[in-house]
Amino acid sequence: MIEKRQNRYIKFYVAAVIILLVFLHYLGALAIVEDYFLGVAGNFQNQTYTFLTKLKYSFVNFQEAQDLKKESIAQKDEIAQLTYENSQLKDLQRENEQLRQVLGFVKDKDFDYVVAKVIGRDLARTNTLIINRGRVDGLRLGLPVVVNNGVIIGKIFDLKENTATILLLTDQLSQLSAGKESLNKPMGLANGEFGLSIKLELIPQDTDLQAGDVIITSGQENDIPRGLVIGQVNRIISYENELFKSATINPLADYGEITILSVIIPKIYNQ
Amino acid sequence: MKYFYYFIISFLAALFAQTLMPNLGFFANMNVLLVFVIFLLIVWGFNLSFIFAAFIGLFLNIYSYLPFGSFILIYLLILLGANFLYKNVFINFSLFTSLILIVLSSVSYGFLLIFLNFIFYKLNLTMIYISLDKFFFYDLFWQIILNSLLMAFVFILGQFTTRKLNLAFLIKR
Predict the structure, then answer these.
(1) Mutate to test the interface with B, among A7, A14, A132 (most CBs of B within 10 A)
(2) Is the pLDDT of residue B103 over 70?
(3) Contact predicate B13/B56, CB 8 Å
(4) What ipTM, to 2 d.p.?
(5) pLDDT band at A269, cuts 50/70/90?
(6) Domain spans of chain B?
């Protein structure tokens, strides 16, 4: 009988504790405990997430290896063609370098990097990544996140003291001002599409755009420098009676494989 | 001391959900934590499932972009509803009861999440919201299917370990 009464009151005790914890959280009294917990748990989570990602791709890689064996025979001619094109590109690169020297062009980096590890995803929204860097590391909302030497994958949309949540470019609510390397002005708006791809919209009809073009950030947004690679144009959708055309873009990074990334911090915030 | 063990188990369950589940591709739709909580409700009763739901909600909220307390509220509301149905409507231990409860809980979870997210977005407490579009319903549909399969698997597995479970239909305790 006494045990039944004790069991009945347990849920009230637990509810009271939870309400107290929520209250203390908003007062800021739990910050030290949360920070310590995130610091301890973050490393463990990163190891687990990295291991499981690698395990997943070990199965994928074996199957891909089998497929690649079959494809390699057919691609020998293509390799020869690419080798010729590569030599042409190298010539252009040398020429470009000489022109830069002639013009006295100095490329100065105007942003810093903070390297971060992925520790998981937000269960409330799957097109996200949670990283082990936060406010204490100098991060701010809206900062771009890159992988592979300049391929942008998303922006920070939620920030805590020791962690941050990144909204991937393929998410429906993700928007980015985009352009092309040969254009000095913005070309359109890159919107995420259902967690799978990116759609470039509001492109003026007279803009020269072809499949295979590399789309970059336009630099029009405050915290996002120009030149970060968004993706490559896959297909152009254009109707004559419409003011704008659109294009689908293939991201150049596999978002499921990312375990380490960099957050770009414009230098203006470090002064 | 047992509450400390519940705390650790809840932490490991939340960690498992956040690190393993996103790597499973299509199966990432499965809500392992919800199945876990509802299964505890059916087998061990409301008190224990209440404690786990509270701890799991606590851990999920530490990482989530939703305001602190959101996941706690969602899990506890779902648990209260499931407990009410279990005690007053279904009143037996069968597999079908557990399947119906997990289906209703999965639907409730999806809509509670979208509803709370929308309210917080309107109150400027969060920068993004979840759209009520065909892809939400597509994800919800598969979450229901996968959660039901997982519940059935766990239920059948549990039958070999405890006498409390009964696979027959309409047999009362």
Answers:
(1) A14
(2) yes
(3) yes
(4) 0.77
(5) very low
(6) 2-18+30-159
